[in-house]
Write a structure and sequence with these properties.
Number of helices: 6
Number of strands: 11
Largest sheet: 6 strands, antiparallel
Distance between the termini: 42 Å
Strand order of the largest sheet: 1-2-11-10-7-8
Helix content: 25-40%
Radius of gyration: 17 Å
Structural class: alpha+beta
Strand content: 25-35%
Oligomer: single chain
Amino acid sequence: QQAGRHVQMRMLPQSPVEIDGFRFSHSVIPSLYLSGDYTDYFRVGEGHVVFVIADVSGHGSSSAFVTVLLKNLLARKRSDYLHRDDFTIMNPVEMLQRANRDLLELGIGKFATVVIGLIDLDTSTLKYSIAGHLPLPVLVSEEGCQFLHGAGTAVGIMEEAEYEEHSVRLPARFMLALFTDGILEILPPDNLVDKEKYFLEAFSHGFESPMQLSHRLGLDRIDTIPDDIAALYVERRN
């Protein structure tokens, strides 16, 4: 378990990372040594960045194994783009379809909720697709905070799963925050609707740093958690 935990930590990207004025950072808090939560971000070519956050069902080694599968898929399709003129990595919907197929073919009865996004660095446009992930990504700007739209079926459940691509123009100053659903488990309200409302209100204080937001959500005051919690932040504060 400890060795596996070490391998998982080595799989995660450097945090924080600055890419052409965008700042990417993350945190992962496992409920056990091994985590079923996964996040990544990386440049593709000269003008794009791909990011992903995923939450694999269950806990422990079997769920952690699926995060390795997802990491391998992203690395493989990034390489295919660079060396084989394969543009799958540039299409969030196609990436989810591929992850869905790979996980079903694995046949271990695991599924994962996923958000995958592609940022065009030149136009500040975000294309993204969601596979059953809660809570939804939160976009914070000078106009306030809001959940991004999206639904879709978790990958690894059914062959006929369908996914949609959404697009949003990113403001000059913003923070995009993505969490896995373990965050909802530690929030005070008793039902999902109130938990999501409480979660969104945590962002209403404006451009707080990820550390300030973590404190506001109580992540620095918990001893044990019932589920893994991963967070991914994309910021531009010019």
